Each structure stands twice: as structure tokens, then as C-alpha cells.
């Protein structure tokens, strides 16, 4: 593997996921963040895509926000370390540990366009609808898509913070979000 290439698991069709060498993603917007993936969970939706997809994965035409279609890098529940930030990013720095909120929703200048961005008719998911994913060594996400994690949290546990319920339980102290907090229904679990 060279510095320009990395390993990634890409979905081609149901029951066809391949680990391949692909280009390391680069920042394409001043509001983006490059993350070195440290841990990624396998979600039930990943299993459904593998067994019977496509469900969320765009096949016949590109997703309207990611502009990608199969094959795509999978993995939408992940955590990692920020290794590069765009020139307009102010809320996170190189070296910060983050869990990723994988929602693709219309955004501009580092902010979602809808308050209820999870209800967008263009909704997609980083790691299911294209744009990269956690089943790769690196990925690039919008700076709005991260949840800061305490340095004492292990990265193997931090990826669970990408789940809405866990995000508000484990990281609400770091980043307060009304929309995320509404998902809470279970008591916080110490880590």
C-alpha cells in the first residue's frame, strides 16, 4: 500500500463485497474533515445490504448528495482520529478523536440546510449511500458529521457513539444537539 492508496471493503452487489486498494480520499471542500478510521461496527443494515441489497446503496444512478453509485465503501458506524481539516473548519482539530454521524443531508458552508436534516427527501448515509465509509482506512466527512469523544474512551467503544442513542448518552457532554437528544430512551451506560 502506498500513501496514495488504502484498503477498503466495497459493495458491488448482494453477496459481493470486495476488499480492494482504492485511492485515499482528499478534502474537496473547506468544511470537510479527513478521519483515519480506528474502529467500525457492522450494523444490521450492512448485513441486509450484503444478503439482499441494494436497499440504501445507489445502483442505477448516483445518490443526489454523494454523487456515488455502486461499488461503494461500506461502514457507517465508526470512529477515528482527525488527520486533516479544511480551511473553514473550526470545531475540530488534527488529533481529535471523533465518532461519525453518517447522515447525508443537504448542507452548505458547513451547516445542514434543514433543522430536521434527518427528514430530508434526499437522505442518505455515509458508508451506505456513497461518499466513503468506515470500512476503509481513511474517509472524508463534512465537519458537521462528527461527535467529539473523550480521550479516555477506547476507539473500539467510541464507534458506538455514532449510533443516535449512544451519541447522546456518551458524548452529549461534548456536543449538545437537540435533535440527537430526542432519540434518547435508555439510561446512560458508563464506559
Description:
- With 191 residues, the protein is of the alpha+beta class.
- The protein has a single domain, classed as Alpha-Beta Complex (Quinone Oxidoreductase, Chain A, domain 1), CATH 3.90.180.
- A five-stranded antiparallel sheet has the order 11-3-5-6-12. A three-stranded antiparallel sheet has the order 2-1-4, with no helix packed on it. A two-stranded antiparallel ribbon has the order 7-10.
- The C terminus is likely disordered.
CATH class: Alpha Beta
Task: Output the radius of gyration.
Answer: 16 Å
Number of domains: 1
How do the helices and strands follow one another from N- to C-terminus?
A: EEEHEEEEEEEEEHHH
Number of strands: 12
For this entry, give a set of tags:
alpha+beta, 191 residues, disordered C terminus, 4 helices, 3-stranded antiparallel beta sheet, 13% helix, 29% strand, Quinone Oxidoreductase, Chain A, domain 1, single chain
Helix-strand blueprint:
Elements: E1 5-13, E2 16-23, E3 32-40, H1 44-52, E4 72-73, E5 78-85, E6 97-100, E7 103-104, E8 107-108, E9 111-112, E10 124-125, E11 138-142, E12 146-148, H2 155-158, H3 164-171, H4 178-181
Antiparallel strand pairs: 1-2, 1-4, 3-5, 3-11, 5-6, 6-12, 7-10, 8-9
Could you provide a short overview of the structure?
This protein has 191 residues and is α+β, with helices and mostly antiparallel strands.
